[in-house]
Every structure is written in C-alpha cells, then in structure tokens.
Amino acid sequence: VEPSVVSYTTAVGACAHEPSDPVLAHEWLQRMKSMGCSPNLYTYNTALAACMDGKLESTVLGSRIATEMLDAVDKEIKANTEGVRADKLKSVIPDTYTKTLARKLMKQLRENWRNGDINMMVAKATVRVPLLKLVDFDRSKAAERVEQQMKEAAALKVESEEDEEEGEELVKDEEEIEYAAVNKLHKEGRR
Fold first, then answer.
1. Where are the beta strands (DSSP E) in 54-180?
2. pLDDT for the residue numbered 87
3. Any long-range contacts for 6-11 (C-beta under 8 Å, 24+ apart)?
4. What CA–CA distance (Å, rounded) separates 157 from 166?
5. pTM of the full structure
C-alpha cells in the first residue's frame, strides 16, 4: 500500500503526543518529501506542534519547519498565479492555527533566551525570523510578491530572447558579408 499524505501526517502526529519527539516528526516530514508526497497544511501544523516541548533544539527545528512551509507556500502561490489551483486538502497556506503555533514557538524561544540557552540577538536574527513570517503571513501580499517575481522573470526572458535574436541577426549579417566577399572574389577572378 502506497503511503499518502494522511498516513504521513498520522505518523508525524504520533510524534506530537507526549512525550513529543520533534526530531522524529521532522524525519517523517523529510521522508514524506523524499517519497514524492507533498505535505499539506495539516502535516506542517502537526510537525510544528511536535516542537512544543520547551527545548531550544525543538524551537530551532520548529523554525526550520516554518522555513520549509514558507517555501512550499511560495511554490503554491506561484502555481496559483499560473492558473494551477491547489485542492484545499493539498494546500499549505498558513491558517489561524499555524499562526497560533508560530506564536507559541516564539514564546518558547523567548523562554529559551531568558534561560540563557541562546543569545537574544542571535535568536531574533535567526530562529525567530521564519516564525515571525508565519505569524505575519498575508496571502494577498504573498501573491503580489510572487506575481512581481514572475513579471521580473518574464522581463528577463524577453530580454534574453532579444539578445538571442540580435545574435542570430549578427550571424546572418556576417554570413551576408562573407557571401559578398566570396562573390566579389569570384567576379574578380573571372576578369
């Protein structure tokens, strides 16, 4: 039987129950991706929930999972702007519960730096960034950003095509010059 997103999410969910095992939850997430099965919103939320054990290592892992989720969101939004709509059960767009989990992980991070497990400035500059992006996520702004990236990519493609056309014209011009030179030599040879 081929594992599905539901069976993988269930495996990740088993890692979220007491005692939680965030490392194993992340391993299941990676295994799922390596088998060609894309995690959905529920898979990511379950993996984030597994990181709520108060340890710095779990908070860092939660931040890594948040980064992976944000990357998947960008891919989904790009696909949506290209006309490929994701099924609601396959979507990775953060919901209110995702934002709640990210806030809890940020509180956990704050406790980690208060306990001296991590420097506050380092925590704010690294671990906190993807969690904050999840909390502040706005679908319409993300769609605008991806659309802008696509416009820039299209402009680069047009520019490269124009350069390619200029190169082809240059080759054509060189061929005409060579032909004219050979023709001139041929005519002069007849005289």
1. none
2. 61
3. 8/32, 8/37, 8/39, 8/43, 9/39, 9/40, 9/42, 9/43, 9/46
4. 14
5. 0.73
